[in-house]
């Protein structure tokens, strides 16, 4: 399930309907205003619902295109501390795309936790970009071009 804002009740319903992963967009307004406790509580409330199910993970979408590096670090750290399984670059719906620099920064920020992963999403449309994201620390790639990338692996191998 993916939506801009998800409440614990919506997460509970999605899990009851079979969801194994919940994507939630971070509260950008609260983050930008420095209300870190609200950002943490928002994420934690969804993570707690997912933890009750035992087999559902939460991915927190940062919408990196709207954030400074300091805000990306804060968002990644808060997400990790709140128990998110992944921090994710972007939805791709609001412009912008994942960048190698953002993936590397997010990975560096959450690696202390050991179990928090990074998903590069939005704008990954070629094998070259995919490999760059993986080299920067992405554990997962989100792309609508997966079939095209794989169909062109041989022709893209030389970049």
TrEMBL record:
<dbReference type="Pfam" id="PF01791">
    <property type="entry name" value="DeoC"/>
</dbReference>
<feature type="active site" description="Proton donor/acceptor">
    <location>
        <position position="119"/>
    </location>
</feature>
<feature type="active site" description="Schiff-base intermediate with acetaldehyde">
    <location>
        <position position="88"/>
    </location>
</feature>
<dbReference type="GO" id="GO:0009264">
    <property type="term" value="P:deoxyribonucleotide catabolic process"/>
</dbReference>
<dbReference type="InterPro" id="IPR013785">
    <property type="entry name" value="Aldolase_TIM"/>
</dbReference>
<keyword id="KW-0704">Schiff base</keyword>
<dbReference type="InterPro" id="IPR002915">
    <property type="entry name" value="DeoC/FbaB/LacD_aldolase"/>
</dbReference>
<dbReference type="GO" id="GO:0005737">
    <property type="term" value="C:cytoplasm"/>
</dbReference>
<dbReference type="GO" id="GO:0004139">
    <property type="term" value="F:deoxyribose-phosphate aldolase activity"/>
</dbReference>
<dbReference type="GO" id="GO:0016052">
    <property type="term" value="P:carbohydrate catabolic process"/>
</dbReference>
<keyword id="KW-0963">Cytoplasm</keyword>
<dbReference type="InterPro" id="IPR011343">
    <property type="entry name" value="DeoC"/>
</dbReference>
<protein>
    <recommendedName>
        <fullName>Deoxyribose-phosphate aldolase</fullName>
    </recommendedName>
</protein>
């Amino acid at each position: 399930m993916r939506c801009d804002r998800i409440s614990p009740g919506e997460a509970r319903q999605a899990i009851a309907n079979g969801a194994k992963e919940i994507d939630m967009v971070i509260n950008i307004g609260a983050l930008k205003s420095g209300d870190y406790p609200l950002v943490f509580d928002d994420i934690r409330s969804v993570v707690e619902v997912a933890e009750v199910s035992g087999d559902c993970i939460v991915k927190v979408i940062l919408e990196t295109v709207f954030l400074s590096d300091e805000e990306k670090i804060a968002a990644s750290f808060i997400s990790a501390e709140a128990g998110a399984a992944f921090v994710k670059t972007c939805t791709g719906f609001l412009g912008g795309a994942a960048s190698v620099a953002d993936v590397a920064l997010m990975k560096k920020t959450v690696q202390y936790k050991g179990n928090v992963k990074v998903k590069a999403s939005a704008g990954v449309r070629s094998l070259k970009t995919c490999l760059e994201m993986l080299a920067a620390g992405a554990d997962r790639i989100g792309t609508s071009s997966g079939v095209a990338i794989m169909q062109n692996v041989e022709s893209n191998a030389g970049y």
